[in-house]
Amino acid sequence: MRLYHGEFVLDLYWLGRGHTDGDLVIHLPEQKMIFMGDLFATYDPYVHLIHYAAGGSLREWSRTLERALALPFDTVIPGHGGPTDRAHLETYLGITVRMQDMIREMNRARKSREDIQKMLETEFGWTGFITNFGLDGVIGEMQ
């Protein structure tokens, strides 16, 4: 969908599931800028809040990020954190894929819920609220 606001052209895209199943990406083609909402945060460590009750998906998040990276842009405005660049979003995609792979491998190896939780906390900075909110969902989804 294309919107016009004064001199600005805004293209709205639903690129797939991630944080929820309703996240939109707003692209300003002339400014070479995208707004990612909660699909991207610049926290360190990078923490993915997967809102399963709202249709979120870790499994599909990487494909959604790949679709965003196919847009022409230089600047990214995350849902949390300050403006950044394409390279930062590419790094976030790499971390997302790594997390997916590690959870899948641990599921295949029949690791316990506690082992997967410890890995997410150690490798990806999951704590308290994030862990309680998404742990069972990612274990089930990444079978």
Structure description:
The structure is a single chain. This protein has 143 residues and is of the alpha+beta class. The protein has a single domain (2-141), classed as 4-Layer Sandwich (Metallo-beta-lactamase, Chain A), CATH 3.60.15.10. It has helices spanning 58-69, 86-108, 113-124, 128-141; strands at 2-5, 8-13, 25-28, 33-41, 75-80, 84-85. A 6-stranded mixed sheet has the order 1-2-3-4-5-6, with helices on one face. The chain is elongated.
Keywords:
single chain; 143 residues; alpha+beta; Metallo-beta-lactamase, Chain A; 6-stranded mixed β-sheet
Lateral strand order in the biggest sheet: 1-2-3-4-5-6
Number of strands: 6
Could you name the ranges where pLDDT drops below 50 across 5 or more consecutive residues? none
Order of helices and strands: EEEEHEEHHH
Output the CATH topology. Metallo-beta-lactamase, Chain A
The value of Rg in angstroms is 16 Å
Helix content: 40-55%
Query: Major sheet, described briefly?
Result: 6 strands, mixed
Structural class, please? alpha+beta
End-to-end CA span: 35 Å
Question: What is the beta-strand fraction?
Answer: 15-25%
Quick take:
This protein has four helices and six strands; from the N terminus they run ββββαββααα. The protein has 143 residues and is of the alpha+beta class. The protein has a single domain, classed as Ribonuclease Z/Hydroxyacylglutathione hydrolase-like (Metallo-beta-lactamase, Chain A).
